[in-house]
Every structure is written in structure tokens, then in C-alpha cells.
Amino acid sequence: MRIPRGVRVILRLWAVIVLAFIYVPLFTVVVNSFSTDKTFGWPPPGFTLQWWANAWQNAGAREALWTSVKAGLGATAIALVLGTLAAFALSRHRFFGRRPLSLVIVLPIALPGIVTGLALNSAIQSTLQPIGFGYGLFTVIIGHATFCVVTVYNNVSARLNRMPRAAEEASMDLGAGIFRTFSRVTFPELRSALLAGGLLAFALSFDEIVVTTFTAGPNTQTLPIWIFSNLARPNQAPIVNVVAVVVIIISLIPIYLAQRLSSGASARTMY
To answer: Exposed, middle or buried, 123 (CB in 10 Å: 0-12/13-18/19+)?
Structure first.
């Protein structure tokens, strides 16, 4: 079907408007991180690398960065295990209540973050604190894992639904056990889906702030919380811009890699 020229022009213009709406604010943050102005003023009067050096020397920002990395890695590890097991259970088996259970697994990523945060905060106070687990990195990891599981589950489920079971059945017919079949046949096919799901889970965890606010406590700061708490301090504005750019870069890299992995795997499946 041939699209009229006027419609194509309107669609392209609309695409430009949408992209500008999304990326112009991010571009402003990046430019301000090099501005000589100590405020969020625009346009910048000049450019400097001073704020990047100051941000690296800021002990609080470095500690928050390391906390975010640890929280992301911990939540990703839990999500890979639980999300993969859930995907196998729901994709390879038929049982009563399968569809409602699938909805329950996906629900945390659809709920507002403040609702999830309140629920986790209540659960921590009622179950973990009485047995000696207070707010800290552990509770942040548990909180992030609740929605990171969904990304792994969705990626693995999609791959399992596209995978033909003939190779697995042939392997078991030839005498290979369940674990040998998984390691030699199933896992190689799932590897890119697991990696893509893990990268997306890490990206989600790294820049999460709402759930973290309810699960971190007063003594634990991730990088997004550090940005939020320093945003109102006039002297910290340039460093906040730099740290925000770091968050953008660290979040963008795993998302880009996950997209490449998913598209490459889809192409291989088609051919």
C-alpha cells in the first residue's frame, strides 16, 4: 500500500516531535554537566570539565554508585533464578490456575512504584525486622527483585514459546537426562534471552528511586536517591548534572545491548 506524500510528511514530523519531547531534556542535562554556570541556567555561558573531576572526587557520589551497582547485581541474580524457573513452569506445563499465576508474576511491573514500595515497607516491618533484618542493601535488593523478575520472565517465556521442542525430545530419546539436555540443548538457545533479561533487570534496578525510597532506610543511598537528595543544594547542581549523565549512560548501555541481543536472536529464529 502506497502512503500519500502528505501523510508521510505528517508522520515524520510527528516522530520528530515525539523524539524531541523525550530527548531534549536529556540533552539539556548532558550540556549542563559541562556548563561553567553553577545553576541550571540556559544557555550555558561556557564549558568546563571541572564538574566531572569534582563529581569523581565526591565520596558520597562514589559510594552511592557502588551501592547502586551492588543492588543491581543482587536483584539481577535473584531475578535470573526466579524469572527463569517461573518461565519454565508456565511455558512448559499446563495446570489449573496457570493464566492467573502468569498475571500475578507480571503485575509488579504494572503497579505504581509507590504502591509496591508501601507494600514492601509494610512487609519489611512486619516480617524482616522482627528477625533482625533492618533496612539496608539487602532490603533494597529484595525490593528491586520484585519487578526485575518480570523482565527475565518475559524474555525467557518469549524464547521458550518460539523454541521447537524437537531437539530436546531427540536428546532425551538418545539417552541424555534432563540436566544434560538442559546444558547441551536448552541453555544454548536460552543464553541470549537470559543475558538480555539480566541486562534489562540491571538497568531497571540501577535507576529505580520510588521503591528504593521505601526499602533503603536512612543509611543506604543509591545513586538516584543521592541525586534527589542533593538536587535542592545550590552548590551541588553541577555535580548533580554530572551524576545524572552517568546514570543515563549506565542505564543506556545494558538496554542497547539487550535490544541487540533480542533482535539478533529473533533474526536467527526466523532463518
So the answer is: middle
User: Tens digits of per-residue pLDDT, 84-140?
Assistant: 999 888 887 777 877 888 888 888 888 888 888 888 888 888 887 787 777 888 989
Peptide bond into 238 cis (omega under 30): no
d(CA 212, CA 207): 10
Q: How far apart are CA 119 and CA 159, in angstroms?
A: 31
Q: Helix count (H) and strand count (E) of the chain?
A: 12, 0
Q: Which of 235, 239, 209 is nearest to 222 (CA)?
A: 209
State the total domains in the chain: 1
CA 59 vs CA 18, 66, 111, 119, 220: distances in Å: 38, 11, 34, 32, 14
Torsions phi, psi of 35, nearest 5? Answer: -75, 145
pLDDT attached to residue 74:
94
Distance CA 143, CA 31 (A): 33
The answer as to whether 168 is a domain residue is yes
Q: What is the CATH classification number for the domain harbouring 196? A: 1.10.3720.10
| Sequential DSSP letters for 194-212 | HHHHHHHHHHHHHT--HHH
